[in-house]
Write a structure and sequence with these properties.
6 helices, 3-stranded mixed sheet, about 40% helix, mainly alpha
């Protein structure tokens, strides 16, 4: 009765493991902070809010992916700036929308566009991005600038330094393929919860 089982490892969701390892491969260290949603400090620290602050269709993988798209969109040099150089106010920044187009374009390559959308209010824009992510929503100068930057980013991601990101997307798609046969029989353990699995999107 006095036996205490030794704890020799920690279980981690495979998708979370893939993306946390990818963040580390790219020089980022993930930490939890209950006082923020997400923040970079310019030294490689990426702080995310606690898991219980996420919506049911949010994942750590999705959040890391979004932050990496910010980094690409704002330029490699933005690694040394807090929040990738975004203003610390609610001021509109067109680069956010270029980031969303990059995110949609990369996810689409691997069949993950529905699964890897952003959280929060920017989902509204993401969900109306056309099938061709470089097609403007209108003929405004702002949309042209957004699309031009997204086009450049989709080219930049082919650079060797972003190989870990593409590897994570590929691994995510492979995991999804492995799970496909189980999805028809999936049902949550939560009483009354009829939400389908995110893996099916």
């Amino acid at each position: 009765m006095a036996y205490e089982r030794p704890i020799l490892s920690r279980y981690l969701d495979p998708l979370e493991l893939v993306w946390m390892a990818t963040a580390r491969r790219l020089g980022l260290k993930i930490r939890r902070n209950p006082h923020i949603f997400s923040m970079t400090d310019g030294t490689g620290l990426l702080e995310l809010g606690p898991r219980d602050s996420l919506d049911p269709d949010d994942t750590v993988a999705q959040m890391i992916f979004h932050e990496l798209c910010h980094w690409i969109t704002n330029g490699v040099e933005s690694f040394g700036e807090r929040d990738w150089g975004f203003p610390l106010t609610d001021e509109y920044d067109w680069r956010e929308y270029a980031c969303l187009r990059l995110q949609a374009g990369l996810a689409e390559r691997y069949g993950l566009r529905g699964m890897f959308g952003p959280t929060g209010i920017f989902r509204e824009y993401y969900d109306v991005i056309p099938a061709n992510v470089l097609e403007p929503l209108d003929d405004s100068e702002n949309e042209r600038r957004i699309v031009l930057r997204a086009e450049q980013c989709l080219e930049d991601v082919a650079l060797p330094q972003w190989a870990p990101l593409l590897g994570a997307l590929r691994a995510t798609a492979e995991l999804r393929g492995l799970l496909a046969e189980f999805l028809p029989d999936y049902h949550t353990e939560i009483e009354g919860d009829e939400l389908p699995s995110l893996w099916g999107r």
